[in-house]
Amino acid sequence: MQDVLGYSGDEAALFYMIGSFFGPVTGVVFGGIVVSVCGGYNSKKGQLAMTYFAVCALICILPLPFVTRKAFFGPGVFGLLFFGGAMVPTCTGIMLNTVPEDLRTSANSLAMIIYNFGGYLPAPVFYGTISKLVNDPTSRIPFSALMVTGFIPMTLLFTNIRAKVAKEEQNFESPEMLAETGQSAGDVSTADKDEST
């Protein structure tokens, strides 16, 4: 921030303190409220809301490597932290819901370890390594390379949500589920045709 955008040391420290605290905290509160209103983290609407949060985070981060003004950089980073934080309640709920109840404490602890060692710890090392290779303190390449890595978890998120929705649809149309609801496969297919027309 100081080398590329010309922030002073005090400005950079103040920006970091305010952005890194208020962005994620307000995002977590906002995300929790929105997903609850949508029906919870297991509902399709709640998972769709989380997908929108992910898209908004990407929209906030994509222009940042090319920004030359402080006034645009700050809101972009805040938006990334805000929408990233908004995804946390839903992601945590989905993750805990996939394991048996007696293993949820261990699963949450393991997730925190993976967050820290797989996400927070490698980021500065990755940035520093790219920066050393480029060997130019004003280069935007290290920051751009770091931002590109954000597409990896987003791709995994979209893939997992699609797989979960497909599995739920398959389970809904299975003979066991149809027997529970008192329907036959023909009834469901007729209902689907009626809806499409």
Please describe the topology of this protein.
Elements: H1 2-5, H2 9-37, H3 44-61, H4 70-97, H5 104-120, H6 122-134, H7 141-148, H8 151-172, H9 175-181, H10 185-196
Mean pLDDT: 78
> Can you tell me the overall shape?
elongated
Strand content: under 5%
The tally of helices reads 10
Strand-and-helix sequence, N→C?
Answer: HHHHHHHHHH
Question: Into which percent range does the helicity of residues fall?
Answer: over 70%
The biggest beta sheet is recorded as: none
For the termini, the CA-CA separation is 56 Å
Low-confidence stretches: 184-196
Radius of gyration over alpha carbons?
22 Å
User: What structural category arises from helix and sheet content?
Assistant: mainly alpha
Number of domains: 3
Number of strands: 0
Q: What's the short version?
A:
This protein has 197 residues and is an all-alpha fold. The protein folds into 3 domains: 1-98; 104-147; 150-197. It is built from 10 helices and no strands.
Tell me about this structure.
The chain is mainly alpha-helical and 197 residues long. It folds into three domains: 1-98; 104-147; 150-197. Helices cover 80% and strands 0% of the residues. It contains ten helices and no strands. Helix 3 (44-61) packs antiparallel against helix 8. Mean pLDDT is 78; it is low at 184-196.
